[in-house]
Amino acid sequence: MAGGVIAAVAPGSLAARVDLRPGDVLLAVNGHPLHDVIDVRFYAAEERPAFQVQREGQALTVETERRYDEPLGLDFADLTFDGIRRCNNRCEFCFVDQMPTAAKQTPPASQSLDLRPSLYVKDDDYRLSFLTGSYVTLTNLTETDWARIEEQHLSPLYVSVHAIDLDLRRRVLRNPNAPDVMEQLRRLAGLDVEVHAQIVVTPGLNDGSHLDRSIGDLAELYPAVLSVSVVPVGLTMFHRGGCRVHTEAEMRLAFKQVAVWQARLRERLGVNFAYLSDEWYLRLGEPVPEAAAYDGLDLTENGVGLVRRFLEIGDWRLKQAISNLQSPILVTGALFAPVLCSVTEAKVIPITNHFFGQTVTVAGLLTGQDVVAQLQGRRRLGDVVVLPGAMFGGPEGQSLDGMWPQEIEEALGRRVEVIEE
Predict the structure, then answer these.
(1) CA dist., res. 282 & res. 363, Å (int)
(2) Whole-angstrom Cα distance, residue 5 to residue 53?
(3) Which of 61, 102, 188, 394 is deepest in the core (most CB within 10 A)?
(4) Angle 279-284-285 (CA atoms, 0-180°, nearest 5)?
């Protein structure tokens, strides 16, 4: 029985009242073994929870009565206590498989392969989908998993569909045993579990008529399937598969195709249902939709509506954050730089992604090495370098290549501030 290591206890919470402590290992609640944070929340919701704890090698049980609306107040070192469910697919566009490895690829001599360890974890865990909004394929579910989804009502889930046609989806996932995703989605609908779907569009594979079928069939399951995010395939320079990125003509064709679906589905369902990620608009020079076009959904973790959210909220927050900084220099990815330039008088420096390749243009995939190499020695660099928070979005709080903001600060000889865009 592994249990979860308590990382923090909130003051004034139930956990604080019964003297649970950081470093304790929570083994069970009311006799139920705990596999993850979901189990803790589910079983601790009972009126009289009993916590089985291991503290400094000693086992103890703490019983209490939960007060009305009293928060549990526990944070854990990990969201899952029994490891992470690994992916059994081999998609050619999988970001993990596009990481550099010393044995197969060598980056430019000026760059290091010391990447953040989490980048090499190929997870496909439905529990993380529920907890964090990460997209999963549902190809590794057991009947025990299905029973748990029903019992604990794990909704919503975020599902990478990519294609509805079974043979094509198996080709996209490179998994000959992948189950029929429409049957799985209907089963989730029967459990009253909502789904946000995703299609990564790869030219010559699941675009064209296949994209039409995927959007159309998923829309038939609305509102059990609440949305489908349409994302263009992204490839790093370390990509070893046979797929490729879109040409501009292919992007424009897919863009218009989804726009037709949006108009049709808004008339039929009252919502757009299919939502293009921001990259389509920015790369094609199209105006980003107004906030109402996203129908109240928050799909920003998938790159959908991030620019609009920035223009509505982030713009003001950024101006507030830099208002007291002397001569700030704003650093971002090449894709977002024009948007940032349009809302600020501060100097904006787009960083070219030499580490992963120039087709990678988003701020979240910038490395500290590229930032340092392109800013070091610049004249009129300014007093403060403002880096996007997305650069340090992993669990370790470091950039993708393992650099802390303080290391970048030391390398540049300039104060560094990290601010969310």
Answers:
(1) 13
(2) 10
(3) 188
(4) 100
- CA 374 to CA 208: how far, in whole Å? 39
4-9 and 25-29 strand pairing: antiparallel
Model pLDDT, residue 114? 61
DSSP-assigned states of every residue in 223-247? TTEEEEEEEE----TT--SS--PPP
**What φ, ψ does residue 180 adopt, rounded to 5°?**
-70, 115
**How far apart are alpha carbons 337 and 344 in whole angstroms?**
11
Cα angle 365, 398, 199; round to 5: 35
Given pLDDT bands bounded at 50, 70 and 90, which one contains residue 56?
A: very high
Helices (H) and strands (E) in the chain, counts: 14, 14
Q: CA 363 → CA 45, 353, 371, 380, 420, distances in Å?
A: 40, 9, 11, 22, 11
Cβ–Cβ under 8 Å, residues 326 and 384: yes
pTM of the model: 0.91
Beta bridge partners of 63: 50
Task: For tokens 């360890």, name the residue.
Answer: 117
Distance CA 170, CA 116 (A): 30
Q: What are the tens digits of pLDDT across the range 320-355?
A: 889 889 889 999 999 999 999 999 999 999 999 999
| Exposure class string for 183-204: b at 16+ Cβ within 10 A, else e | ebbebbbeeebebbbbbbbbbe
Gyration radius from the chain CA atoms: 23
- Domains with residue ranges and CATH for the chain: 4-76 (2.30.42.10), 96-303 (3.80.30.10), 308-419 (3.40.50)
